[in-house]
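Researcher: We are triaging several targets before committing to wet-lab work. For this one, the compound of interest is cholesteryl oleate. I'm pasting the protein sequence and the ligand SMILES. What I need is the predicted three-dimensional arrangement of the protein with the ligand bound, expressed as structure tokens, so it can go straight into our comparison scripts without reformatting.
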Amino acid sequence: MADSNVLKSLYRDFKSQIDPKSIQPSVTVYDREKEMMAFQKLFRDIRLQVDVGLKLHQMRRNTVDSQFHDVFTEIDLLLEPVETAQQSIFEGAPKFDFVQPDGTHVKANGFRSLLCVLKELLSCLLYYLQKYARDRGGLFYNAADSLSNITAHARALQGMERICYHANALMTVNDSPNLHNSGDMRRSLLSLLYTETVCRDAFYGRCLGFQYSQGLKPILQFLAIAMASYEDWYKGTKDDPIKQLLNSLLKGGKYIQHPTQRGVKIAELTDDCSIYFAKAFWSLTEQTAVKTAVKLVSQSVDVSETLEVPAKNVTVDSVNGGSVTLQPPFSDLGYRPISVSLISHKLRDGQPFTGYKRPPTVPPSTGLIIHFHGGGFVAQSSKSHEFYLRWWSKELDCPILSVDYSLAPEAPYPRAVDECIFVYAWALNNLAFLGTTGERIILAGDSAGGYFSIVTAMKAKQLKLRLPDQVFAYYPATLISSAVSPSRFLSLMDPLLPIGILLSCLQAYTGCLASEEVQKRRKEIRDKILAAKGYVIPSTCDPYVAPKPQTRWDKMKGGFQRSQTTPEVPSAPKDSKAAPPARPPPPKSTRNASVGSKPSRPPPPSLKNGGKAVSIGSESPSVLFKPSAAKLEEHEEEENEVFESKDEKTSSIETGQSETQESCKEEGEEKESEGDEQGLTEVDLKAEQQSDSNCTGQAETQEDHRQSITSSASPFFPKHKSPGLRFGMKVPSKEETLSEEEIEALIEEVMATFDDADITLKDPFISPVNSPDELLKGLPLINIIVCSLDPLLDDGIMMAQRLKSLDQPVTLTVMENLSHGYLSLTGTEQLNAAYAKSIAMMKQALMVGVQQENNSEKES
Ligand SMILES: CCCCCCCC/C=C\CCCCCCCC(=O)O[C@H]1CC[C@@]2(C)C(=CC[C@H]3[C@@H]4CC[C@H]([C@H](C)CCCC(C)C)[C@@]4(C)CC[C@@H]32)C1
């Protein structure tokens, strides 16, 4: 089928040589075809490896055998739903692309990014599966390592499955090209609720940074590990700094060596992240030592001055001939001078200079860049961004004024916005002092700073000040709300902007930091709803226990086993007592048994269910648990036992298994009579039916699977003896069961705790993407630069869509496979290329004469 499509597209290519008009579409179709085939090939190859693996280990001769069998079974079960979601996202993704005003198609949006990430993950998984197949039985074969790698990637695939599922659901409710589901707080809340069930530790363990290219990966891994060890420092007693430092270094080492612990730690620490921790970690770049190091390695400049904009009224000329007086910002902190940095490669006439040896001056530049730094609204300063600002100043040959606006949570919205526009007006009045004639003024900012650059232009427009000539918003946040979007799902695995930190920044900036009591209550409600929907509450599970890496001795034994006739994976029991009894082979191989009767999932729910938000993803069967780092420490001992015999465990687990079936039946009967009364939604019912069929209808096949999973210390399953645990879902107990009305009431209760936020969000300036038309019309050219692997990708795209819909000049540039914050990172060719591209764009914008051309074009 796919082959015939390729043939068709080749034929179209051939035809296009005759008919030049058909060149464009045929190339696109061909590319898409190739992309789709790449996915199909990946799935096919993985299935092939899994089939072989399942056959090899179907005898379940020992614990390692069982573990391999479990992990292959789990992958096998995951592939189908992942592939279904992938196909559907693949179909719909292009509808959300941005088409530049000049007609160029920008192939980027959160859906596409999720597909890229999925592809990367599948490739990694395939790599480890193939490596395992190739090395098995070889001299240097390490069974534990293989198992750990395959397991880690399979667990991440579980997370991806859930994310793709939600993304797919989002696609069905969002009318293209709308990527955010803003305006529906309820739905956002529910989506956020269900994302709690993604095992995020899987993304931060062995798989950390899997989505990035080889150059970027180690940098982001380093930063994530630094964050994990900094947490230990931050929490520890600050009495003895040396002891503290050594301790965090040791912890850093530990997190490199033990990926599982790292994963759990990062997931835990970024889940309910205190804004003060994020602030402290992100402000590491403010340390004198770091600042000095930056100065040493960066471009040297003649001027790097810190100035203060006094808190006095500023009167500026307005565009209609009059003048406007701006009062200094007052909210939250009262009147205060605002700190700014002036960076200039050459000392220019008029510029202040307090350095040691005065260099010769050069005439004022024609351009000026006013820069706003990023830092999630809560951290960083012009100094922490000086590394690239110094280069900019040299390459663009113009001075840069970087604004140190006040930070949240001490100074929430609108303080920083007021400061930015105030400094802008002050700069208009002090161009000569800044060393410029001001012929070309550019506003530029990254991240939170990108947001300020757009909002400042909007404010200038509203106040009728002279507008900047262009705006450069690098990966900006443009929707200040917790609305979900496909790219925002990336924050579930992002090393720089994890979901918990993003949400804390949001609360800090909008001035809605919830009290501890409110947070506690929100969590209680979350747990109640999830339990009622049948999710295994992550925090109630035992820690994830990674397979123990083998010792060299084990490896050698592994090597010797090669000569055996059976393709066994050696797991040398420590003593004879621990030798596992050989299991009789199951009646059918699990793989064969499950063919055709695999727990196939219903399609994503139609969320337009009579206007009711339904339980997104409630039928997902994946295993869910979120271990706690503290618990994990306790289990370090147990971790060593994973490769040991399961003799003692067998009896209790087997009891658990029969209990499982019992409870399954009981609950199933109860459900039949109660289902309607409870007013469950269609999706819920489907889920129930499915779980019922898991219970009885497919007794033979699921029995195999359940047996395979519960009967060993599975690397997927925590040693959880809860009866009723099936595929990470469980039938809610009597106490956990809630009626739909009760769930509604709980949702209402949580929504009420966001009331304040709602008031703030109605401000027309807080989210530029949703600002009224009159505030956006008449803005100068806005250049939006986004990264394809950035949780805020959709924010940038939606801003461009909005401006285009108002016929505003806008460009959208996508930096492929780069992460958020790329301007602050350095050291790889990919980063250098992206950096050079940004410079080239700004250089063009600073050229005197370009504006005149634009204007005359407009007039004509
Ligand atoms: C599934 C649903 C999801 C819902 C999500 C809700 C989304 C809410 C949306 C909007 C609300 C608020 C948005 C806030 C946006 C923030 C954007 C924003 O401003 O993001 C920036 C935050 C700082 C940072 C991470 C960054 C870039 C570079 C980073 C720096 C690189 C090196 C720096 C290290 C500290 C150096 C350490 C050296 C030491 C010697 C070890 C590091 C990591 C500091 C932090 C920055 C991006």
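Researcher: Any quick observations?
Model: The radius of gyration is 29 Å.
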